[in-house]
Structure to design on (176 residues):
């Protein structure tokens, strides 16, 4: 094989290897991750162009300030902006709920890797930390979106995740 042919093969292989590399972490998480269940909150999505899907909002995205370590609060006050946090979770009545938000990765226990945006007061006047886990949309079979939208509006949907080292993938949704 001449030099030009080797360069062509290399140029074709590099993009393929990059795409395959992007699949490793999600596949590894699906195969080896721990199962976690999160409670969703009512949300009414509306988007005609995406087909049947349900937009999910989780109770674990609004964490009481008392569960947030002082180092996280200080960093938010000093620098502002969004940054990565670790949310330690505990299973209660079959659903995982936050018990601590920290900047340092936990050595043990079940946790999610999230992005904290800000701390503000909710409708009841309690201070809440708003954290995103990037598990927002779940695409459904055709012609089933209306049923799931109604269940979502009532807060009756539970989300099943696979979690490995804080990295989470939404694998399924079901009703209580």
């Amino acid at each position: 094989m001449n030099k030009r042919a080797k360069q062509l093969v290399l140029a074709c292989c590099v993009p393929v290897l990059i795409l395959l590399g992007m699949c490793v972490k999600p596949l590894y998480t699906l195969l080896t991750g721990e199962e976690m269940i999160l409670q969703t909150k009512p949300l009414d999505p509306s988007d005609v162009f995406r087909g049947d899907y349900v937009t999910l909002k989780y109770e674990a995205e609004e964490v009481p300030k008392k569960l947030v370590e002082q180092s996280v609060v200080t960093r938010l006050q000093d620098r502002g902006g969004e940054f990565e946090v670790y949310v330690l979770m505990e299973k209660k009545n079959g659903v995982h709920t936050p018990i601590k938000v920290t900047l340092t990765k936990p050595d043990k226990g079940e946790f999610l890797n999230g992005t904290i945006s800000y701390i503000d007061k909710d409708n009841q006047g309690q201070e809440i930390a708003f954290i995103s886990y990037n598990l927002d949309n779940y695409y459904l079979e055709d012609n089933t979106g209306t049923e799931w939208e109604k269940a979502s509006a009532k807060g009756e949907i539970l989300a099943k995740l696979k979690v490995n080292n804080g990295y989470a993938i939404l694998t399924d949704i079901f009703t209580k």
Q: What stands out?
A: The helical segments are 3-32, 70-79, 145-153. The chain has a mean pLDDT of 86.
